[in-house]
Design brief:
Structural class: alpha/beta
Low-confidence stretches: none
Largest sheet: 7 strands, parallel
Strand content: 15-25%
Distance between the termini: 67 Å
Shape: globular
Helix content: 25-40%
Radius of gyration: 22 Å
Number of strands: 12
Order of helices and strands: EEEHEHEHEHEEEEEHEH
Mean pLDDT: 90
Length: 257
Amino acid sequence: MVNPLVCVKRVVDSSSEVVLTEDGQGVDGRFAGFTTSAHEECAVELAVRIAADQGGGATVVTLGDADAVEQLRSALAVGCTAATHVLADAQAFGPADVARELAVVVRDHEAAGTPHELVLLGNDAADSGDHQVGIRLAHELGWPVVNGVSTVSVADGVVTASGAGPVGHETYRVPLPAVVTVLEGGVEPRYPTVPGRMKAKKAPVEERQPAAEPAGPSRVRLVLPPPSPSTVEVLGEGAAAAPAVVDLFERLGVLAR
């Protein structure tokens, strides 16, 4: 039996314009809404599949303010069977702080009789771009870690993780317990059913306080990249523009004389 732990984060929906907070320490989501990153949605899907295949249950965990329970219930609605909420200001917690808190959750759950031999995370944070939590968590626990894979399976106490590498497809096999960070694209996250949503609304969520004061992200500030340059060429007006349009289509290879 394997009971995977999958970690999610409440982040601003990046499908709309990204706006930074006035202090440059985070992304302002007041006008965009919040969601879970695509990487983490795939990690949740993998956790649910592995739990079902191994006869266990998938637990979802997040560190964030009270509103982050929305992301926990979204994971419960698609098959996670338990949820843990570390109530804290996520902006005040750097990657090392988050990794420490996740390690405490792993150890406490094991002491309570629910060991998590596999921890799945998104490959990177969708809001700040950090790629550190998975590696730091593995270091805290003393476990092997595989980063940036798209598919994960477990059999006979071994994790098989595959994904695209610098020179082709790569597959890693590591013994449990292990930490794996997931990139989107390897699996299709399922949509929650109406019964799943109703059940998730009533499901209990373990709430806990951080085990230690955060050291902070040590971030100077976030900066938006400059907008991509664009140019507009007016080809003409009405019928007089037709020759210029034909010439343009020929340059693009749409037409051939």
